[in-house]
């Protein structure tokens, strides 16, 4: 049962490596963005443009007016807005989506972002500090960074499979059964060192002389 579970997990890890490879290759063909929502406000995304693909993990929180308390204390917060024009029965109204962006941290290809955003367009003219926003934190990396980790289990599975196959191909040692020794019989080793009868009789004659 353990071997079956290990084989399934290794296969899933190998499929993940193939998906990452396709993500890197597809970024050279066209720009794309894939998004997957997971429980707990976790969001996985893959994006590529001009031959550069990145993976991003984002953790969203509920809307709150105290969104600025969840930000990092380092650096200022840049607030921008996306505007939209709404036509309601001949009446034109303007709405805005607020975006609060904290300074980005970069280290060894990793990018750590944090901020807050309004989930929908707002028509009320209120300040950003009194508007409920959804804070988030995200970690971004190049597409090939998780590949060595995902290749560990398939590598172990291949090592175990090769080792098991070599054991099966190894020839079994031949066992030779010796016949049972009779009671009172002299072993062949001692029998080979016995002197012939003629030599014993000649030696006795010489001593008799």
**In total, how many domains does the architecture comprise?**
2
Unreliable runs: 189-193, 202-209
Provide mean pLDDT, rounded: 78
The coarse silhouette is elongated
Tell me the helix content. 25-40%
Radius of gyration: 40 Å
In whole angstroms, how far apart are the ends?
Answer: 88 Å
Number of strands: 8
State which percent range the strand residues make up.
Answer: 25-35%
Report on the biggest sheet. Answer: 8 strands, antiparallel
Question: Helix/strand-derived class?
Answer: alpha+beta
Number of helices: 5
What is the H/E string? HEEEEEEEEHHHH
Commentary on this structure:
This protein is of the alpha+beta class. Helix content is 30%, strand content 32%. It folds into two domains: 1-60 and 143-165, no CATH class; 61-131, no CATH class. Residues 189-193 and 202-209 have low confidence and may be disordered. The chain has helices at 2-26, 147-150, 152-169, 188-191, 197-208, and strands at 32-38, 42-49, 52-60, 78-88, 91-101, 105-107, 110-117, 134-142. Strand 2 (42-49) and strand 3 form a beta hairpin. Strands 1, 2, 3, 4, 5, 6, 7 and 8 form an eight-stranded antiparallel β-sheet that branches. The radius of gyration is 40 Å and the shape is elongated. Helix 1 crosses helix 3 (152-169).
């Amino acid at each position: 049962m353990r071997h079956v579970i290990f084989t399934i997990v290794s296969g899933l890890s190998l499929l993940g490596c193939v998906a990452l490879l396709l993500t890197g290759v597809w970024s050279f063909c066209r720009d794309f963005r894939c998004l997957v929502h997971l429980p707990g406000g976790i969001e996985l995304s893959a994006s590529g443009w001009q031959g550069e693909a990145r993976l991003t993990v984002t953790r969203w929180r509920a809307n709150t007016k105290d969104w600025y308390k969840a930000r990092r204390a380092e650096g200022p917060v840049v607030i921008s807005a996306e505007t939209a024009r709404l036509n309601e029965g001949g009446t034109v109204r303007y709405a805005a989506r607020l975006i609060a962006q904290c300074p980005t941290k970069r280290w060894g290809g990793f990018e750590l972002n944090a901020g807050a955003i309004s989930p929908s367009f707002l028509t009320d003219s209120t300040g950003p500090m009194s508007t409920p926003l959804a804070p988030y934190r995200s970690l971004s990396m190049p597409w090939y960074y998780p590949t060595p980790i995902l290749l560990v289990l398939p590598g172990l599975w291949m090592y175990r499979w090769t080792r098991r196959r070599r054991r099966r191909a190894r020839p079994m040692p031949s066992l030779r059964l010796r016949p049972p020794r009779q009671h009172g019989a002299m072993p062949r080793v001692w029998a080979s060192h016995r002197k012939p009868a003629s030599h014993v009789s000649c030696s006795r004659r010489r001593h008799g002389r």
